[in-house]
Design goal:
Elements: H1 6-18, H2 21-28, H3 32-46, E1 51-54, E2 57-60, H4 62-91, E3 95-101, H5 105-118, E4 123-129, H6 131-139, E5 145-148, E6 157-171, H7 185-189, E7 192-196, H8 201-212, E8 218-223, H9 226-234, E9 239-243, H10 248-252, E10 257-258, E11 266-275, H11 282-293
Parallel strand pairs: 3-4, 3-5, 7-8, 7-9
Antiparallel strand pairs: 1-2, 5-11, 6-9, 6-10, 6-11
Helix pairs in contact: 1-2, 1-3, 1-4, 2-3
This protein binds 2-phosphoglycolic acid.
2-phosphoglycolic acid binds at residues 101-103, 130-131, 148-149, 196, 200-202.
Length: 296
């Protein structure tokens, strides 16, 4: 059986749009007999007439309307394909300037690795720092995108949530509270805490949580890295409050325990963020879609 060709679809679409062989021919820079011939060859293949002429006017038959519908679908799919390929071409050799907060860096690196696997042509610059610093880089328009916790309102930022970020209380496994069920917040109030530096989103969320409940934590030491806090907690210097996502290894190796505390985990979320007025490059747009597509 002879097959329909894309060219025949395009010619028929023009005829159906103009309801005129001569106007379709003019649009396609073809002669009118060439257009008629293409339409006739579709009719021969399908065994049905696609147009009928009443007086001077041309109408589509039912088969003609079906073919037009299919043809428009095919054309739309081809247009999509072209747009997607253009996006991919734009990404090759593109640059991505990204800033992520310390706490989300492991999650972000994992996403970046998978993105690079699909788009090896994109060169990536990654800055890892705390929440305050990432907000500063967005304000100064120094980065394309950020991955971080919830952003404050009124900053002209577009933030799209893509993943949960539960904060938990950690202790060394031998700590008396590690064996208790339903530890109360009052029990925590007498414990020394190791906290992140001012400017950290984790620290801010933890302080808000206790302030909202009229409580204050006893901070024994301030540290500017999650890793340092984990080590200090293991060494028995106090308790800590960190994102569960930073604790995978220590929990698997039973070097740390998560306490069962009322009101915990504090449920935070991760967002992809950029300035509302930012014109995202194909690489940045592609990465943003990739992150949102990889949400769990
Ligand atoms: P940070 O990250 O504690 O490392 O600043 C948390 C956030 O982005 O809010």
């Amino acid at each position: 059986m002879r097959r329909l060709t894309l060219r025949q679809f395009r010619v028929f679409e023009a005829v159906a749009r103009h309801l005129s062989f001569s106007r379709a021919a003019a649009e396609l820079h073809l002669s009118q007999p060439a257009v008629s011939m293409q339409v006739r060859s579709i009719e021969n293949i399908l065994g049905l007439p696609l147009t009928e002429q009443l007086g001077k006017k041309i109408y589509l038959t039912e088969a003609g309307r079906e073919v037009l519908h299919a043809s428009r679908n095919i054309t739309a799919r081809l247009d999509d394909l072209q747009a997607n390929l253009a996006q991919l071409r734009g990404m090759v050799g593109g640059r991505l300037n990204l800033a992520v907060t310390t706490t989300v860096s492991a999650v972000a690196t994992d996403i970046l690795a998978r993105f690079r696997g699909q788009h090896p042509g994109v060169s990536i610059h990654l800055d890892v720092s705390n929440r305050e610093s990432v907000l500063g880089q967005l304000a100064a328009n120094r980065i394309d995108l950020a991955i971080m916790g919830q952003v404050p309102g009124g900053l002209d930022l577009e933030a799209t949530r893509f993943m949960d970020n539960p904060l938990v209380v950690i202790a060394p496994p031998g700590h008396p509270l590690a064996r208790r069920k339903k530890v109360s917040l009052r029990d925590l109030a007498s414990e020394p805490f190791l906290v992140r530096e001012a400017g950290s989103g984790t620290r801010g969320a933890m302080e808000r949580f206790f302030a909202d409940r009229g409580l204050e934590l006893r901070t024994s030491m301030e540290m500017s890295s999650n890793e340092a806090i984990k080590q200090a907690v293991q060494a028995g210097l106090g308790l800590g409050i960190l994102s569960l996502q930073t604790l995978e290894l220590e929990l698997a190796l039973k070097r740390l325990a998560v306490l069962d505390v009322e009101g915990f985990p504090i449920m935070r979320h991760w967002y992809v963020v950029h300035r509302i007025d930012k014109r995202l490059s194909p690489a940045a747009q592609g990465f943003k879609e990739f992150v949102l597509g990889s949400s769990h």
